[in-house]
């Protein structure tokens, strides 16, 4: 067999890109599975996004991720969107399908994949803190996965109302907004509690959600979108109570697994990616 020196190219366009560990976990999976693919972590400013996308197209890339601040802006350079990406209005994974470039959003899909390992969200009552980009992606996927109800608790009413209207108009889930001006008490009917705010994200690891922690009950599954640190104050509190938990690290790994499947058609081993992330982020 003649040698093949031409790997298939994938990567990420973001700003800042320096602290994004995705390259490490994706390349670990490529290597482990013997995939002739590479992943390039690229610092791309908003002014250069169009040129970067055209560059990827010109170089015959297989696909790429977009992170902050390009998740919405990149859509105008694509040929179409997947179902949930269309509802979310933002993409983080771009896939070349034939001659077309299609935008998908794996943030919420990765979260739901991680959640399913602990609980099926269908017919469940969910309390979701946050209404930003991650919360919107998570809420859309939970609604599409058949969640019975979602209570969106968020500081800014406008952002939350937009998510409530989007889901009530387009999915079967019953979605309502709850203001967050004082300590929030989680309703006892809640099956799944999710933090999709940035509260507690490194370096502000001591920041805590303004909730009545006594209202978290043993039968609730508690999840946090924050991957750094993976054991947030919320996750630690829930574990102390004996609740089942899902960390943001599991979400990050699973959205990577889904992205690699889009590009390579291979189901990679999440434990390889999890192990690499723990290594590069110095997590015990
Ligand atoms: P956004 O900036 O879009 O949204 C931030 C959210 O946090 C908003 O709902 C905001 O409320 C809320 N918030 C921030 N600070 C406070 C505060 N002090 N009090 C109350 N609410 C607050 O960010 P993203 O949605 O993109 O990201 C949110 C988190 O999700 C980040 O920590 C990010 O790391 C994580 N994430 C994890 C991923 C993973 O794979 N594990 C993937 C994507 C994101 P308001 O609307 O009132 O401003």
TrEMBL record:
ATP-binding among keywords: no
Gene3D superfamilies: Leucine Dehydrogenase, chain A, domain 1, NAD(P)-binding Rossmann-like Domain
GO MF, one example: shikimate 3-dehydrogenase (NADP+) activity
Domain Shikimate dehydrogenase substrate binding N-terminal, chain residue ranges per copy: 22-94
UniProt superkingdom: Bacteria
Pfam family, any one: SDH_C
Active-site positions on this chain: 71 (proton acceptor)
SUPFAM superfamilies referenced in this protein's UniProt entry, alphabetically: Aminoacid dehydrogenase-like, N-terminal domain, NAD(P)-binding Rossmann-fold domains
Record keywords: Amino-acid biosynthesis, Aromatic amino acid biosynthesis, NADP, Oxidoreductase
Family note: Belongs to the shikimate dehydrogenase family.
Subunit structure: Homodimer.
HAMAP family in UniProt: Shikimate_DH_AroE
NCBIfam families named among the record's database cross-references: aroE (TIGR00507)
Protein name in the entry: Shikimate dehydrogenase (NADP(+))
Provenance organism: Arenibacter arenosicollis
The encoding gene: aroE
């Amino acid at each position: 067999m003649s040698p093949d020196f031409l790997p298939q190219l994938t990567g990420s366009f973001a700003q800042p890109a320096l602290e994004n560990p995705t390259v490490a976990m994706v390349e670990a999976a490529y290597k482990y599975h013997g995939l002739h693919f590479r992943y390039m972590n690229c610092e791309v400013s908003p002014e250069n996004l169009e040129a970067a996308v055209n560059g990827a197209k010109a170089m015959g890339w297989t696909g790429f991720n977009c992170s902050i601040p390009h998740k919405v802006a990149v859509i105008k350079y694509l040929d179409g969107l997947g179902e949930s990406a269309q509802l979310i209005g933002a993409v983080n994974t771009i896939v070349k399908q034939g001659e077309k470039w299609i935008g998908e959003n794996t943030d919420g899909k990765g979260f739901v994949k991680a959640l399913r390992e602990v609980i099926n969200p269908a017919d469940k009552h969910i309390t979701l803190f946050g209404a930003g980009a991650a919360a919107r992606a998570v809420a859309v996927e939970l609604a599409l996965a058949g969640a019975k109800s979602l209570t969106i608790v968020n500081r800014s009413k406008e952002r939350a109302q937009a998510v409530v209207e989007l889901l009530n108009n387009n999915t079967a889930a019953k979605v309502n907004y709850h203001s967050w001006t004082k300590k929030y008490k989680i309703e006892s009917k809640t099956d799944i509690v999710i933090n999709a705010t940035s509260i507690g994200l490194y370096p502000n690891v001591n920041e805590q959600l303004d909730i009545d922690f006594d209202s978290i009950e043993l039968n609730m599954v508690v999840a946090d979108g924050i991957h750094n640190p993976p054991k947030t104050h919320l996750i630690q509190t829930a574990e102390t109570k004996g609740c089942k938990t899902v960390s943001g690290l599991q979400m990050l790994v699973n959205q990577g697994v889904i992205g690699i499947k889009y590009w390579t058609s291979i189901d990679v081993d999440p434990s390889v990616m999890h192990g690499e992330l723990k290594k590069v982020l110095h997590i015990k």
